[in-house]
Amino acid sequence: MSAMDAIDAFDRDVTAALMRVAAREGWANTTLAAVAREADTTLAALRPRFRDRADVLDRFGMVIDSIVLAGTPPLNEADTVKDRLFDILMRRFDALAPHRDGVLEAWRAMRQDPLFALARLPASILSMRWMLEAAGVSSAGAAGFARAHGLFAVWLTAFRAWETDATPDLAPTMAALDKALTRAESLAETVAPWFGGRALSPPSPPAAPARAPLGAGSEPTGV
Question: Which residue of 11, 29, 127, 187 has the smallest Cβ count within 10 Å?
């Protein structure tokens, strides 16, 4: 990955260009040269930051992380962790929406190439660690490791619903996410004592997670 940690306009432009090329040409035909042309830059400018197109894809995930984290409001103790995670992951879908076709092309490539998908796993788990921290849940230690993998499973379940969800309000995606979070919360309550920790959230009356209209509270720009 690039030695430069900060997300800047160049990262946003190049990763968005990657998604446009993938959407238009398919992942197999998405070359660094094509991405450079699409971003109105050069291969020489890409080389110091990216090793290959997969590196650009991983950077895209970091761009999405930064959008979600920047739009995350201060913690409200009245909200359950489930409510917070629901809001955070739905805002992640909001951030992906402008790049939907390219994202799905990359997703199809990962399903066809298990090694390519496996190589993306560390970056995906790291993203889930940041989402947990944004929700006020520690991602440290053995418990954090388990939580991050559990949240990744939740994300994949919701992502599969999003893949075929053509509704304007993403109702099927929200339903899949809510159901997956409920299962994860129940599992967390069961296994938390194994790690000497607490469940994700204290017991509370069941309630449908509140959510602003699609696009509100997010700043979409750019698996």
Answer: 29
> Within this chain, do residues 136 and 152 fall inside the same structural domain, yes or no?
yes
- Domain shared by 86 and 142, yes or no: yes
Pick from 48, 70, 92: which residue ends a domain?
70
Q: How far does CA 169 lie from the centroid of its chain? A: 19
Q: 121 and 26 in one domain?
A: no
**Long-range Cβ pairs for the range 76-82 (8 Å, 24+):** 80/201, 80/202, 80/204, 81/135, 81/136, 81/137, 81/185, 81/200, 81/201, 82/181, 82/182, 82/185, 82/200, 82/201, 82/209
DSSP H or E segment with residue 34: helix 32-38
Asked whether the beta carbons of 137 and 147 are under 8 A apart, the reply is yes
Domain count, the chain: 2
